[in-house]
TrEMBL record:
Every N-(5'phosphoribosyl) anthranilate isomerase (PRAI) domain range: 11-199
EC number(s) per entry: 5.3.1.24
Keyword Amino-acid biosynthesis attributed: yes
Pfam families in the record: PRAI
InterPro entries per UniProt: Aldolase_TIM, PRAI_dom, RibuloseP-bd_barrel, TrpF_fam
Protein name: N-(5'-phosphoribosyl)anthranilate isomerase
Annotated gene: trpF
Originating species: Winogradskyella echinorum
GO MF terms held by the record: isomerase activity
PANTHER family: N-(5'-PHOSPHORIBOSYL)ANTHRANILATE ISOMERASE (PTHR42894:SF1)
Keywords annotated in UniProt: Amino-acid biosynthesis, Aromatic amino acid biosynthesis, Isomerase, Tryptophan biosynthesis
Amino acid sequence: MKLKVCGMKLNIAEVAKLQPDYLGFIFYENSPRNFEDTIPELPKSIKRVGVFVDESVEVIVAKIEKHKLDAIQLHGHESSETCRLLKSTKKDIIKVFSIKDEFDFSVLNDYEDVCDYYLFDTKGKLPGGNGYTFDWKVLKDYPSTKPYFLSGGIGLNNVKNVQSFLKRQESKYCYAIDVNSKFEIEPGLKDVELLKQFKKTF
């Protein structure tokens, strides 16, 4: 199971020493984790993910070049056409869908050919980092074979729930666990000890 630590801002090098598979950098001005610095040198095994919310293709491409991003995570209402345009960057495209108690999986149809991964997060007032989990049973109806990231309120307090989920049929295409706010001392500052404990459980 891959691990993505999102909302990176303040102690990037420290978290990178834990060798997660992905580090996420949020390029969204309304987020307290908005990243405006320079990403330090990272091990080649760690993929840099740029997180965007309804941003223009031009701005995203500029950030890819500036920060040498490996993947693009689209956290807004981006159309399949936007994803198609971004595919030309040859970067992995991760399209986010927010879930509360239920979800109409037919909305994925338009994205099947233009994304590399989906990410399922909890629907909240703000895009991402809400600290709550959605009902993972919803994923029993997942109709695709595309790998997905599981996100939303995942922390040490629900490790057993995650482990239980990963044994069930609906986790068949779960590719990565995405963590953020439950491992923070403050927005953008990760608790490395908590992350270390979490990483050991998978």
